[in-house]
Amino acid sequence: MARSDQKSIAERRRSILLDVCMNREVSIASLAEKYNTSQMTIWRDLEDLSRNHYIHKTQTGKVTKNQTLSLDPNIYSRSSDHHAEKVAIALKAIELIDDNDIIGIDNSTTAMELARLFFTKESITVVSNNMLLMPILYGHPKLKFISAGGTLKFSGYSTEGEIAINTIQQFNYDKVFFSANAVDVSFGVSNTDDFETGTKQAFLRNAHQSVLLCDHSKLGQKAVYCFCEIRNVDILITDSEADEQQIRAFEENGVRVIVADAIKDETV
C-alpha cells in the first residue's frame, strides 16, 4: 500500500472518530456516504477503531463512543452533565497538543473526553492521576501512559495524596490540562474537595502551558478551596454558552480564551 494511501486511511479514521465523539451515534451507511467510500471500507475503519477501544459497534449498524467509565453512577452522572459542551471543549483542546508532547491531565470528566482523542496524536507521553483513562487509552499504538499512583479516591476514581503528588512533580510538562468545580476572575480556580487540590497544583507547578477546561456553568462561580490564581492560567477553553462579560474579564486578566461550539443531539 502506498504511503499516501496509508495517510489518507489514517486521516479518515481520525475524522470518523471525531464524528462519533461529536454525536450520540452514527451509522455505517451515513459514514460511507459522507466519505464517498463503500460500507465495507467503513466497516474496516470501524474494526480498527473498535480494536483500539475507541468506539463500540452495535448489532444494528450503529456506532457509539466506548462509554467504559466505571460502575460508579456518580461518574456516569458527571460525564453526562453538559456532555456536548465537554466534547466540544475536548475537540479544541486536542488541537493544542503536538506529537511527542509530554502531557499532564487531571481527573475531570472533560479530561476523559480529551483522552479519547489522543488516538489522533503520535508518540505522546501522558501523566495522569485519573484511573478511568486506563481503559480509554488501552491499545494506543504510540502512547506512553504514566499513572501517578497514590491513594485511590473511590468517589472520583483518581489517585491523590503524597505519593501521587511526588510522582506528578517529577515531570516537566509541555501542556497540562485541568479542570475545577468553579472559576472566578477575582477568586481564582477552586474546588469543593481539598484532597484533590494537591495533585492539581503539582501538575501546574511544572507546566510550560496550563490549559483550563471548564464549561460555561462553572464560570463566575466560587468553590471552597482556591488552588490556582487566574494569572497562572494560560488558556481557558469553554463553550459558546459562556457569558461574554465573563470571557472579556478573563482576557483582560491575560488569559487566552478559546470558545468551542457544542453540537447537540445530531446524528451523522
Helix content: 25-40%
Alpha-beta classification: alpha/beta
Q: What is the molecular shape?
A: globular
Overall domain count: 2
The level 1 CATH classification of the largest domain is: Alpha Beta
User: Would you tell me the overall average pLDDT?
Assistant: 84
Taking the sheet with the most strands, its summary is: 7 strands, parallel
CATH third-tier fold name of the largest domain:
Rossmann fold
Q: Pick out the low-confidence regions.
A: 68-80
Oligomer type? single chain
The beta-strand count equals 15
Terminal Cα span: 29 Å
Q: What does this protein look like?
A:
By secondary structure, the protein is an alpha/beta fold. The protein folds into two domains: 63 residues, Winged helix-like DNA-binding domain superfamily/Winged helix DNA-binding domain (Arc Repressor Mutant, subunit A, Orthogonal Bundle); 188 residues, Rossmann fold (3-Layer(aba) Sandwich), CATH 3.40.50.1360. The chain is 36% helix and 22% strand. It contains ten helices and 15 strands. It has a seven-stranded parallel beta sheet. A three-stranded antiparallel beta sheet has the order 1-3-2. The protein has a three-stranded antiparallel beta sheet with strand order 10-11-13, with helices on one face. Helix 1 packs across helix 3, helix 5 crosses helix 6 and helix 8 runs parallel beside helix 9. The longest helix has 20 residues.
